[in-house]
């Protein structure tokens, strides 16, 4: 994980992964968060509206994306 920003209703994560597929990483992150959220707030059911959205970034745009995350 290179950078992250938690918002009130969503989050942004900048991840570099050479080995594991991004879908498996996001599945693990979302599953762990939803499980801890369900325990904390005694919630039953889905907490996400849609599947995660991702874009592949080139290395030269990494700094710009990181600055966007920190300014959010």
Describe the fold and architecture.
- It is a single chain.
- The chain is of the alpha+beta class and 72 residues long.
- The chain has one domain.
- The protein is built from 2 helices and 2 strands.
- It is globular.
Structural domain tally? 1
Gap from first CA to last CA: 17 Å
Mean pLDDT: 77
Helix content: 40-55%
**Strand residue content:** 5-15%
Spatial order of the strands forming the largest sheet? 1-2
Structural class: alpha+beta
Contiguous runs where pLDDT drops below 50 for at least 5 residues: none
As a whole number of angstroms, the C-alpha radius of gyration is 14 Å
Number of strands: 2
Shape, per Cα inertia axes = globular
- Largest sheet, described in full? 2 strands, antiparallel
Tell me the number of helical segments per DSSP (H or I, 4 or more residues long). 2
- The SSE string, one letter per element, is EEHH
